[in-house]
Write a sequence for this structure.
DNA sequence: CGTCAACATAGAGGTATGTCGAAACAACAG
DNA sequence: CTGTTGTTTCGACATACCTCTATGTTGACG
């Protein structure tokens, strides 16, 4: 499902040198900005939090997410789609319901990108 | 200078439980979203990177930042203002020039917020 | 005091984003 | 097959955002 997500964060070695390591070039900045932009909305941030707080292999049904907001169901679906396109989450339909989960490693890689103290042994 | 920046990240103890720890409430999400939204633009991300790559106490003059982009000087100034209002950077005028730096600890706290493996001793 | 350079602010215009209701799609129950 | 429930897609609209030009502000220098 969903062949249309970014791979900014998930690229094998490292997504990029790190924000504080060296000035980003235009392409890196554009890709990373899409991920941060996806997190730059209160609704999406809460959605991410609700999904991520289920733990590593955890999943959440859309039917659990929607009633937590004073928004229409299509709007929630729209935000979930944006998070998916940003490469942060993925989903699967099982019967009537659709379950979402956080793509493994994405948040940690994003955290590593922001960390100013470089993790030892990243080469270069 | 600049009494108008967010304090989301800098709050004494912890800005919040962490994205994966527990579902964010509306207020936390709204505050955090402003920070991520500030990073959700390629230009601002490059600006942050250019400033942050100067290291801990490093500073950058605006006159060094502006010519790196194909944008007008007021546009760069506008983006710097947004980054400042998000509580990510601060600035000081020295003579004719204005110098910007990354507020200490902000990026690391943001990284800690995203990290899924909770730092030891956070209770619960 | 006058002028110049470095930045910031103000206002305007085009584009993207968030939200909705309506409709389409998928899966299951009778 | 038909109806019901859960979810996504489709247009449409109001608002926010990014960018520009024009103007203001601050400090340096004669």
């Amino acid at each position: 499902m969903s062949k249309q997500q970014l791979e900014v964060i998930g690229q094998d070695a490292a997504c990029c040198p790190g924000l504080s390591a060296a000035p980003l070039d235009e392409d890196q900045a554009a890709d990373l900005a899409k991920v941060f932009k996806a997190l730059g909305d209160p609704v999406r941030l809460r959605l991410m939090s609700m999904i991520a707080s289920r733990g590593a292999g955890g999943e959440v049904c859309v039917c659990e997410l929607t009633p937590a907001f004073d928004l229409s169901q299509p709007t929630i679906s729209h935000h979930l789609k944006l998070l998916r396109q940003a490469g942060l989450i993925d989903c699967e339909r099982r019967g009537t319901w659709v379950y979402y989960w956080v793509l493994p490693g994405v948040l940690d890689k994003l955290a590593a990108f922001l960390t100013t103290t470089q993790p030892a042994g990243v080469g270069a």
Notes: Chain A touches chain B at residues 19-24, 26, 29-30, 32-34, 36-46, 48-50, 52-53, 55-56, 68, 102, 107-108, 110-117 (CB under 8 Å). Chain A is about 40% helix and 10% strand. Residues 25-114 of chain A form a domain with the Arc Repressor Mutant, subunit A fold (CATH 1.10.10.10). Helices of chain A lie at 26-39, 42-52, 62-65, 73-85, 106-114.
